[in-house]
Design a protein that fits this description.
Layout (H helix, E strand, L loop, with lengths): L1 E5 L6 E2 L3 E4 L3 E6 L2 E8 L2 E10 L6 H10 L31 E4 L10 E13 L2 E13 L4 E9 L5 E9 L5 E6 L1 E5 L5 E8 L2 E9 L3 E7 L11 E4 L9 E7 L5 E7 L6 E7 L6 E3 L4 E3 L3 E7 L1 H14 L11 E3 L1 H4 L5 H13 L4 E4 L29 H9 L3 E6 L3 E2 L4 H5 L19 E2 L5 H17 L2 E6 L18 H18 L4 E4 L17 E3 L6 H11 L8 E6 L12 H8 L3 E5 L7 H21 L3 E4 L7 E8 L4 E8 L10 E2 L9 E6 L22 E4 H6 L2 E2 L7 E9 L1
Parallel strand pairs: 24-25, 24-33, 25-26, 26-29, 29-30, 30-31, 31-32, 32-33
Antiparallel strand pairs: 1-8, 2-3, 3-4, 4-5, 5-6, 7-12, 8-9, 9-10, 10-11, 11-22, 11-23, 12-21, 13-20, 14-15, 14-17, 16-19, 17-18, 18-23, 19-20, 27-28, 34-35, 35-36, 36-41, 37-40, 38-39, 38-41
Length: about 750
């Protein structure tokens, strides 16, 4: 580890990965990405370049780069060029979205921070994960009585992250409105891609060109079915495999704001992000601080490279799941609230016979919970349904060699519950007015010490009594009018921190337990919650066709081993569509595979095929969960090709998905990206994903029955003929080095 401290312009230092000139130029590099920063006493960090690696630039070229980046003064603008810093300030002439907003009883609404110290560290760690370079900038506004610390880190995989800490150094209270970090974009980034959606249809992509103004995405629900996990911008037409693209993500499980902005008249473009604070939510007394969430930023030549940087980071953390991801059965869509021991044990028998390794008992096991109108908050086993507790089921499940999992929704409460009747003051509300109910429930104020300790104590007791190895942690409603009863003030910020503390405490007390983040499905899939959970439940919709889009979007941020993906019943419970088991299995195969289907009602042939899918998953999950995710930019929107390549091992698995009928028949040649160009590979169908039924009058391509051998270069550039399939079908291809 090396450390450099910069106070005044005194010295020039450089090494192979970073360089700094005396007057405040810094060049950070990792994994094909360069970040050139200017930091002077009079200005917060300004990014001169964020993108493709510039190589080992000497100090004089860095200085020339700075000189070349200074714009001339335009008509109608301030008399000196206006710098876009990582925390933009109106005091410098910036009239776009400001980095900090707030006031002290109306005063100190605008800041002008002067830098006191810059500290640069190399080859360090953060919470056990490696950090290539860390820059810490301390600054102060003596007039506004505010201190600021900005941390900028470049991770070994080329991913950036930054956050700010604002401190009130004055005597009077300072109310924080926002703290947003901004990263500049080049003119070549002229198109925006982000995501929207709803419950049961998360991560729907939307593209449009940059225009003057701000494209702002705010999430005020404390979950993000309709929010965007990523805000990306790139050269028009960028895809998975090519086209420069930049993206940002807010690692926060509360309210967030993410925006793409083009200012006028200069046309400067940027991506910005931070926490969305409700009115008066953060009020700093003397000496108190506000820490913004991390804003992650990734650059790539194509979305695959941008995505790979996120996956590389997540896999570098010590808490990232390192053991094989256990196949599981979740009983929700099989039984719903019908918790009959004989029925549940029969389902366990069927799951074990199929090779399943984990059994998850979902909603309905606790006191008073016969439907979704009552019981939330009373986390004790219902004696009426379970007179001997959960022990008979636990003994049966573990006796079959499976691990037991259990569902909780710790942050919520039903008004019809012992807890709500005893402690109505523990419910988030605005003074004397209850928010509207959603799914017959309200939100428990975990920032209240009594409420937090109640929930922790009950869940801790359950986890201590039963052999539970997995917790499904749900969050089934938006935070509407979420205020603290005692003050009436907004409480989403404090609630999010309290939920984090609860998860952290339970993980410390029960280190053997894995946790899943579920928020009505994929409503909470950010890197803040993923610091504390081993996977997300990607969506409450298990329809395999819908999942193709949902998992494609979510997978840009989250690697496959953290995406819960289940084989549902033949008829989807949420859409009414019917799909062949081969399509359902091939879709779930690439995530953390599970089953959510009453296997006791399945035919013998169906149970046998499920067992084949589970066996194939267990055989190949080391590749699926450690390889590099790749996707193609196929010209036919009816066709989707994606896969996982184990770098350096000469093995890959691809899915060829026929989403709907295509314009062409047969569909033509598909490309298989990501392979070593100089290696020869054998390509052939992978069972059980080799079940393909050609369309009317069609035959399988000649290579299908005997395989084909081609170089990685040829497979990526020329491709192979795809089989003609009926719509909503998928086949798997196994690629191995010869």
């Amino acid at each position: 580890m090396t450390i450099q401290t910069y106070l005044t312009a005194t010295a020039v230092t450089a090494d192979a990965d970073t360089s700094r000139e005396a007057d405040g130029l810094w060049h950070l590099r990792a994994a094909g990405v360069s970040l050139v920063l200017e930091v002077t006493r009079s200005a917060l960090p300004r990014i001169l370049h964020w993108g493709a690696d510039l190589g080992d630039l000497p100090a004089d070229e860095l200085d020339a780069l700075r000189a070349a980046a200074v714009p001339p003064v335009a008509s109608g603008t301030p008399d000196a060029p206006v710098p876009l810093t990582i925390l933009p300030e109106q005091s410098a002439g910036w009239l776009g979205t400001p980095g900090v907003t707030g006031h002290r009883d109306g005063a100190d609404f605008s800041t002008r921070f002067l830098v006191d110290e810059v500290r640069l560290e190399h080859d360090v760690e953060r919470d056990g994960a490696p950090v290539a370079h860390r820059m810490t900038v301390d600054a102060r506004d003596a007039e506004a009585d505010l201190a600021l610390r900005i941390e900028i880190e470049m991770l070994p995989g080329g991913l950036l992250r930054a956050r700010g800490r604002l401190q009130n150094t004055g005597a009077a209270v300072f109310t924080v409105g926002s703290l947003d970090l901004a990263l500049p974009l080049p003119r070549e980034a002229d198109q925006i891609l982000d995501f929207t959606g709803r419950h049961l249809r998360e991560r729907s992509p939307q593209r449009h060109d940059f225009v003057a103004g701000t494209h702002l995405r705010e999430s005020r629900r404390a979950r993000s079915h309709d929010g965007t996990l990523l805000m990306t911008a790139g050269r028009r037409g960028f895809g998975y495999r090519s086209g420069e693209v930049w993206g940002v993500h807010v690692a926060w499980s509360g309210n967030t704001r993410t925006f793409a902005e083009q200012g006028m008249p200069t046309g400067e473009r940027l991506l910005g992000a931070g926490e969305l604070l409700l009115a008066g939510e953060v009020r700093l007394s003397a000496g108190e601080t506000y820490d913004s969430p991390w804003v992650y930023a990734s650059y790539g030549d194509g979305l695959d490279e941008l995505s790979h940087r996120f996956h590389t980071y997540l896999r570098s953390r010590p808490q990232h799941p390192g053991t094989p991801r256990k196949s599981l059965v979740n009983v929700w869509e099989a039984v719903y609230f019908d918790h009959d021991l004989d029925r549940l044990t029969a389902l366990a028998d069927a799951a074990a016979a199929a090779g399943v390794e984990r059994y998850v008992l979902d909603d309905g096991w606790f006191r008073g919970r016969r439907d979704d109108t009552a019981g939330l908050g009373d986390w004790t086993v219902d004696d009426d349904v379970w007179p001997e507790g959960l022990h008979p089921l636990a003994d049966h499940v573990t006796g079959l060699g499976m691990e037991l999992g259990l569902w909780f929704e710790p942050e919520m409460v039903n008004p019809d519950s012992d807890l709500a009747r005893a402690h109505p003051e523990w419910i988030l509300q605005t003074g004397n007015r209850m928010p509207p109910e959603a799914r017959h429930q309200q939100v428990l104020d975990l920032a209240h010490t009594g409420a937090w300790e109640h929930v922790y104590g009950q869940i801790d007791a359950i986890l201590a009594e039963y052999p539970i190895g997995f917790v499904k942690w749900d969050h089934n409603r938006d935070l509407v009018e979420a205020g603290h009863t005692a003050t009436g003030g907004a409480g989403v910020h404090a609630q999010t921190h309290a939920a984090y503390r609860l998860l952290d405490a339970l993980r410390t007390a029960h280190p053997h337990v894995e946790f899943e983040s579920c928020a009505g499905g994929g409503g909470r899939a950010d890197l803040g919650i993923l610091e504390r959970t081993e996977r997300i439940w990607t969506s409450d919709c298990i329809d395999a066709l819908e999942r193709q889009t949902i998992e494609s979007g979510t997978g840009l941020l989250v690697p496959p081993e953290m995406l819960g993906s289940h084989i549902g019943s033949p008829t989807s419970h949420t859409t009414g569509r019917r799909h062949e088991l081969s399509f359902r299995g091939a879709t779930a195969f690439f995530g953390h595979l599970g089953i959510e289907w009453d296997l006791t009602a399945a035919s013998e042939a169906e149970r046998s095929e499920v067992a084949r899918w589970v066996a194939a998953y267990r055989q190949h999950r080391d590749l699926l969960h450690h390889g590099r995710s790749v996707r193609t930019d196929d010209p036919d929107p009816a066709l989707r090709v994606h896969g996982v390549v184990r770098e350096g091992s000469g093995e890959a698995i691809y899915a060829v998905v026929q989403l709907t009928t295509g314009v062409w028949a047969p569909p033509g040649r598909i490309r298989l990206p990501g392979l070593d160009p100089d290696t020869t590979y054998d390509v052939r169908p992978l069972a059980p994903g080799d079940d393909v039924e050609p369309g009317h009058g069609e035959a399988l391509p000649p290579w299908w029955s005997r395989g084909v051998r081609l170089s990685g270069r040829t497979l990526a550039a020329a491709g192979i003929q795809a089989p003609h399939q009926f719509p909503e079908r998928s086949v798997l291809l196994h690629v191995t080095a010869v």
